[in-house]
Amino acid sequence: MKTAVHQAKKTLQPKEKILADKIEKNRRDMSLKSMQFNRFMLIRYSTAFFFFVNLYWALLMRQTWVIIIPLTIMFVSGFAIVEQIKLFGNHTNRLIYSKAFFTVQLIVNIFLMISIITPLFTPLFQFVNDTNQNRYIVLLILLLGTGLTLLVRRRLVLIASNQDKYYSRLVAYQVLLKNSKEMK
After folding, report:
1. Which residues lie closer than 8 Å to 143 by C-beta, 6 or more apart?
2. Mean of the per-residue pLDDT values of the chain
3. 3 state DSSP class of 184
């Protein structure tokens, strides 16, 4: 009887070990995917932020010709959003549509900053009273948006050339995983 139980344990242990190895491999693969995906966290959140800012602007301007501007930006951001969603399954470090979206957003922000000192301010920002103080507030908001856009564009360049800090952490983790496999 003891022999049968001992024999059953011997046959189960290799299966359990195989299962444990598969679970461990899946955990490592998921960790690597998450680390690769997290390289783009600032880009993802910035894309969402600008999407909703433009949506809000479009809703405020829905009765005017100005609605074309935020809707166009939102259309371009749709390509960037799809590209970023695909990152989890297909890793790449070159985000063409995201870079195009942030370029468009940057150009629009610069145009809007210039419009503050022109008569275009009133039609572009009908929801704001036309006072010098409000113009300065809008300028400050646009400057912050432009700064964020420039920061994200810089991050995209660093990621494309694998010079971002997350990439070095990813490589270090891969080396650690390789060394731990060799030790077993």
Report:
1. 113
2. 87
3. coil
